[in-house]
Amino acid sequence: MLTFALKRLGLAVLVALTVSAVSFSLLYLSGDPASAMAGESATSADIEALRRLYGFDRPFLVQYGDWLFNALQGDFGQSYYFKLPVSQLIADRLSITMLLGVCGISFALVTAIPLGVAAAVRPNSFIDRTALFISVMGQALPSFWFGLVLIVIFSIQLNWLPPSGSGSWRNFIMPTVVLGYYAMPAIMRLTRAGMLEVLNADYIRTARAKGAGEWRVMFKHALRNAVVPVVSLAAVQMGFMLGGSIVVESIFALHGAGYLAWESIGRNDLPTVQALILVFAGFYIVFTFLSDLANAWLDPRIRVG
Amino acid sequence: MSEEPILAVEGLTIDIPLAQGTLHAVRGIDFELNRGETLCIVGESGSGKSLTSLAVMGLLPKRLECAARKLAFRGTELQGQPASAMRQLRGNRMAMIFQEPMTSLNPAYTIGDQLAEALLLHRRVSKAEARARAVELLGKVGITAAESRLSQYPHQLSGGLRQRVMIAMALMCEPELVIADEPTTALDVTIQAQILRLLVDLQREMNMAMILVTHDLGVVARVADKVAVMYAGEVVEQGTAKEIFEHPSHPYTQGLLRCIPVPGRTKPGEHLGSIPGIVPSLIGKVEGCAFRTRCDLAESACAKPVPIHRTQGGHAWRCIHSDTERVPA
Question: A95-267 adopts what CATH topology?
């Protein structure tokens, strides 16, 4: 188990390094960063001064090494737009995004897994069809539309929940539902498919032959085997939620990291974009690593790899 | 023999609803089993052997329709029992060993957890006591270093070892009835003999009743007290092992016995017997003797309902001929 974990960790570090190199080279994708910063009216002397000030005149690898070294210590440089340390900027926004992501994925898992199990226990029953309907809806409804509908109903008509902001926990209810409902169909369908397959397995019959009750058979013997691919999917979706909840964050005016990324791209604020890419990729890497560990715990056969 | 039989089955039928019609997989079978006895159910694939054993355990898939005049375990009718009552019997007083040791253990849990579970479900014992019992039984089924096996997972064990674990699991609660459904079919020939020996020794030691489902007549000859020969969902002949082997009375049983080589009697190079033809379809109404299309002694009367002949010793067969041995084959 330890060897497995170390191998996965080594792999994760390699992926992180690759991503850091890619995100650093973004700086040069849009041409000369110094002239881009200086603007159109700048003289060549101004550009040269900026180039020296920000160290763009040094060899690429030295710049990358320097940037990476600082980034590892949490220093991502200054935001061109806010003139604040990028790390501070991200830290302020990230707490909201993380809270939203955790709530969203929890909502998705808590609704999807029981529904998937129930659907698999009685395929083609009323509950299976209802679950299918719910998941097709979730897949088909665009988040921005669903979010707006919720605001119209619960904020404007019923006046139960605040439509925007991030002041209290009540602000997070609707964004959580919108974000979670987006992730829920895939998890639900995967749980159902996994359970359907596992419930036909010989060891399920063995469990029944031992005299185990239906709940025990479902949740102890079947679900543990069926949920392995679900964990991997949930990890990817969690990474996606943390990086890609831009739409939901803008609808509900939750100024999180996704919204910051969107703004910074528009403002050509490269240090911020670089740092955000690295942070988002870092989330993916961490969650993939954690899901690998979780799967190895769930299924001992994986531990050998 | 005044003691109540462990298991009494009368007129058991199992129907499988299919799109093309109803498949009458088991068509009215009777048998009885006393404490300490071994009943071998013999027959080819699809004859209904496995379904019969699953029906006794109450483990048939729900879409199958199962009915019997009597399906009694120690005098208690099992049909109509609530699911909770059946659960208390299963794994506790009646246990089952399956055909596929490679897939019958849960890959996600250790051997120790799965063995202990069988006891913890039915007895108020601590986890430590359950594990101690698991070690004891692993020793009994001939697994060395039992203590260290407890923390192993099924994928770390060979097929023979897994089947030993399955046997140990079935015996955790000292059941009165064990049903072994082709327990050695999936194993190497050398392992088959060991596992069978083990099963029979344990059965005698614990004085359990055992139903051994098999298609291997060599196995039957060695272990059976009683034999029931199944063909196309019916018991065509049953009796004590001695009678079945010495006076097989149904043409199908006779055919089966001709298929096995006998040392001393079968000459090298001689062809073994075989039964031509295939098992008839059991979809829709089945009338008369199902074996008649493959039988050398078939007559027009075979298409009508077939009488059962019984001797005083309990030997019974289902054929229009009262004494097929005299009829030249």
Answer: MetI-like fold (1.10.3720)
User: Is the pLDDT confidence value at A111 over 90?
Assistant: yes
On whether any CB of chain B is under 8 Å from the CB of A196, the answer is no
Answer yes or no: is the ipTM higher than 0.90: no
- Could you tell me the residue range of the domain that residue B19 belongs to? 7-93+173-318
In a domain? residue B126: no
A267: its two tokens: 């403002």
Does A41 have pLDDT greater than 50? yes
- Residue A267 has a pLDDT of 83
Query: Is residue A305 within 8 angstroms of chain B, CB to CB?
Result: no
Q: In Å, how far are A78, A82, A95, A238, B314 from A89, measured between CA atoms?
A: 10, 9, 11, 22, 90
Minimal Cα–Cα distance from B99 to chain A, Å?
Answer: 10
- Determine, yes or no, domain membership for B312: yes
- Look at residue A69 in the predicted model and tell me its pLDDT: 86
Dump strand ranges (E) for chain B: 7-18, 21-33, 38-42, 65-67, 70-73, 76-77, 94-97, 177-181, 209-214, 226-231, 234-240, 308-310, 316-318
Nearest residue in A to B172, CA atom = A210
**B113 DSSP 8-state letter:** H
Q: What is the CA radius of gyration of chain B?
A: 21
Residues of chain B with pLDDT under 50: 1, 326-329
The mean per-residue pLDDT over the stretch A75-96 comes to 84
- Which H, E and C letters describe chain A, residue by residue? CHHHHHHHHHHHHHHHHHHHHHHHHHHHHCCCHHHHHHCCCCCHHHHHHHHHHHCCCCCHHHHHHHHHHHHHCCCCCECCCCCCEHHHHHHHHHHHHHHHHHHHHHHHHHHHHHHHHHHHHCCCCHHHHHHHHHHHHHHHCCHHHHHHHHHHHHHHHCCCCCCCCCCCHHHHHHHHHHHHHHHHHHHHHHHHHHHHHHHCCHHHHHHHHHCCCHHHHHHHHHHHHHCHHHHHHHHHHHHHHHHHCHHHHHHCCCCCHHHHHHHHHHCCCHHHHHHHHHHHHHHHHHHHHHHHHHHHHHCHHHHHC
Domain CATH number, residue B30: 3.40.50.300
Instruction: Name which of A211, A214, A298 is nearest B122 (Cβ-Cβ).
Output: A211
Task: Assess if residue B39 is contained within a domain.
Answer: yes
Cα separation, A210 vs A262, in Å, equals 57
Check CB contact of A123 with chain B, cutoff 8 Å. no
Residue B80: count other Cβ atoms within 10 Å of its Cβ. 7
Q: Do A211 and B121 touch (CB under 8 A)?
A: yes
**What is the per-residue pLDDT across A126-136, written as a single tens digit (0 to 9) for each?**
999 999 999 99
Whether the CA torsion A46, A52, A56, A58 is positive or negative: it is positive
- Residue ranges per structural domain of chain A: 95-267
Number of domains in chain B: 1
Residues A116 and A190 sit within 8 Å (Cβ to Cβ): yes
For residue A222, the chain B residues in CB contact (below 8 A) are none
Q: Is residue B298 part of a domain?
A: yes
Tell me the per-residue pLDDT of A218-252, one tens digit each, with 9 for 90 and over: 999 999 999 988 999 999 888 888 876 778 888 88
Asked whether the beta carbons of A270 and A167 are under 8 A apart, the reply is no
